[in-house]
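Whiteboard transcription, Tuesday session. T.W. wrote the structure tokens on the left side:
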């Protein structure tokens, strides 16, 4: 479907607009941006409009049908559950396991890094349950952004959108930086030997042109065709799985159980600090949900692809972490290229090249699958005008969102050129954990509140119980941060969480039942997901929250000056006949 542009007096067919265009309306849509006077008027109504956006919620039909028209052309349905499963492997297994495992085992968890992966894996699997139900019910490119917009409203969706874009940009940059480290290992050189050394402040002083180049190459492949990217992902992921199998088997063959002592050198706090960081290693599963519109049979393919791939990945991560911890003492683990160096030190020098090659393959597929999923997030965010609608356009020939891909990848390249992996990882984890927590809340709202059906008293009860769950989870996390060895505070926060969840289960009926696939044990699983995600967020250091706070302030400034007014205009203008619709109706009348 294409948006029409003009017609002649003789009634010729309306011509499609060019994909490559740069009009003011494509970047500054709506009445608020027609001129400076209109913009000043819009700013004067900021508070009123903000109240409108906070209260506004979308609906399933709007996300699935109406918003899709903003892209003018359709994405192609070409993926099966098999494609999605391999996209799951490709999206997730990359820099996290190959780089963060060594970094966090060395600095925080020691051999107990295995338990860190278990903790973050449980959190990720609970989130996967929520994503799966939503993706089956609302199969759109917007993923968590669309789901939260339907259940929690427009403003909550903006917070999600900001964190999605932040996570997409920083995530791609982090993986690209890690790619350079493993590439230099393959060349038998120091990880920083191919970076340009400067006098900038620490963490930003090693410039990385190779990271920029790999981002550009994977973006070109992803832009060309979703199906072609899927074929490439199959091959690369299969090679990566062979290498992973080798790492696990060879690592355990050279295991020394004495390396597991002390198992928890930094105490439980070290385990959970590492768990919060390595949660980034599970990031990427949400990309599968964004491919729902390109899936042949979403109700069957998405549960198989999401749950199947993530279950296998969780087991793989734990086994890989165990093999590393048993090969080397945690104090001797190289935080930059842990597996390659570990094999070298146990006498398998040749193996480090195989591991480096596998890591490069893994990180390449992460960048490829990430380019697919991240661009689809940005496309749907642009469809509601939270970012300029130019980024929502789908190319008529390739069936891919080229503009949205460029938005994410150009910004990623700029950050990858300057920022080190450790600067990016903690910021990524906060964004991912916050979105997962909001997804769990959104699922509870979806099950227990339906507009026009749920009584007002039940809505008030649900709101109260959800607040108690969130506050008690924050309290548990805060108490853990203040006194890791204490227990008294948990006697208040944990029972509060339990009683609030029990109250939802006993006192409130579920007003919506999933049509095809649903999260089991509701409200317990989503409530537990809230608690674990908040707890892991609280385990991150103060520096991570400072960076996150700065990014959030920047997002809110952007929203107040652009996003709020663009989305307000769109929501209210869609209630009126659009120019193209009037034109088409006039044409139909003329022909009649």
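and on the right, the sequence the group agreed on:
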């Amino acid at each position: 479907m294409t948006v029409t542009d003009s017609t002649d007096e003789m009634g010729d067919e309306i011509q499609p607009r060019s994909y490559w265009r740069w009009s003011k309306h494509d970047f500054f849509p709506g009445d608020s941006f027609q001129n400076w006077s209109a913009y000043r008027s819009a700013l004067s109504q900021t508070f009123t409009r903000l109240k409108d956006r906070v209260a506004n919620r979308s609906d399933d039909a709007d996300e699935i049908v109406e918003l899709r028209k903003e892209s003018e052309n359709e994405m192609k349905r070409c993926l099966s559950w098999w494609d999605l499963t391999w996209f799951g492997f490709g999206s997730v297994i990359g820099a996290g396991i190959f780089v963060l495992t060594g970094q966090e085992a060395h600095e925080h968890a020691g051999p107990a890094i295995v338990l860190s992966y278990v903790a973050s894996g449980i959190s990720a699997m609970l989130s996967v349950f929520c994503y799966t139900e939503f993706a089956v019910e609302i199969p759109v490119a917007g993923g968590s952004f669309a789901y939260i917009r339907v259940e929690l409203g427009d403003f909550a969706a903006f917070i999600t959108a900001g964190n999605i874009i932040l996570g997409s940009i920083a995530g791609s940059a982090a993986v690209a930086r890690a790619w350079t480290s493993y590439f230099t290992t393959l060349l038998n050189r120091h990880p920083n030997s191919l970076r340009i050394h400067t006098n900038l402040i620490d963490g930003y002083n090693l410039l990385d042109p190779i990271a920029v180049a790999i981002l550009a190459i994977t973006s070109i492949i992803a832009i060309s065709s979703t199906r072609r990217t899927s074929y490439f992902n199959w091959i690369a992921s299969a090679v990566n799985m062979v290498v992973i199998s080798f790492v696990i088997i060879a690592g355990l063959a050279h295991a020394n159980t004495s390396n597991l002592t002390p198992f928890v050198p930094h105490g439980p706090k070290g385990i959970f600090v590492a768990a919060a960081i390595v949660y980034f290693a599970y990031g990427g599963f949400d990309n599968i949900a964004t491919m729902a519109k390109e899936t042949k049979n979403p109700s069957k393919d998405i549960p198989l692809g999401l749950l199947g791939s993530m279950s296998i990945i969780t087991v793989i991560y734990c086994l890989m972490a165990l093999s590393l911890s048993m090969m080397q003492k945690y104090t001797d683990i190289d935080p930059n290229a842990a597996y390659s160096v570990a094999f070298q030190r146990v006498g398998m020098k040749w193996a480090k090249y195989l591991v480096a090659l596998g890591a490069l393959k893994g990180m390449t597929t992460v960048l490829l699958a990430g380019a697919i999923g991240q661009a689809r997030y940005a496309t749907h965010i642009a469809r509601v005008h939270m970012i300029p609608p130019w980024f929502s356009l789908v190319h008529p020939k390739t069936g891919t969102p080229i503009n949205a891909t460029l938005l994410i990848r150009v910004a990623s390249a700029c950050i990858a050129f300057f920022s080190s992996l450790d600067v990016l990882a903690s910021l990524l984890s906060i964004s991912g954990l916050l979105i997962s927590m909001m997804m769990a809340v959104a699922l509870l709202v979806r099950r227990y509140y339906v507009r026009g059906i749920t009584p007002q008293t039940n809505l008030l009860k649900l709101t109260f119980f959800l607040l108690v769950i969130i506050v008690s989870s924050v309290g548990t996390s805060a108490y853990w941060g203040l006194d890791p060895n204490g227990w008294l505070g948990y006697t208040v926060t944990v029972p509060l969480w339990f009683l609030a969840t029990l109250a939802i289960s006993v006192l409130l009926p579920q007003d919506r039942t999933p049509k095809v696939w649903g999260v089991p044990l509701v409200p317990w699983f989503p409530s537990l997901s809230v608690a674990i995600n908040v707890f892991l967020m609280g385990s991150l250091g103060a520096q991570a929250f400072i960076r996150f706070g700065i990014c959030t302030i920047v997002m809110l400034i952007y929203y107040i000056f652009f996003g709020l007014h663009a989305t307000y205009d769109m929501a209210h203008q869609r209630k009126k006949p659009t120019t193209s619709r009037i034109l088409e109706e006039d044409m139909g009348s003329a022909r009649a």
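Someone added at the bottom: Residues 1-15, 577-592 have pLDDT under 50 and may be disordered.
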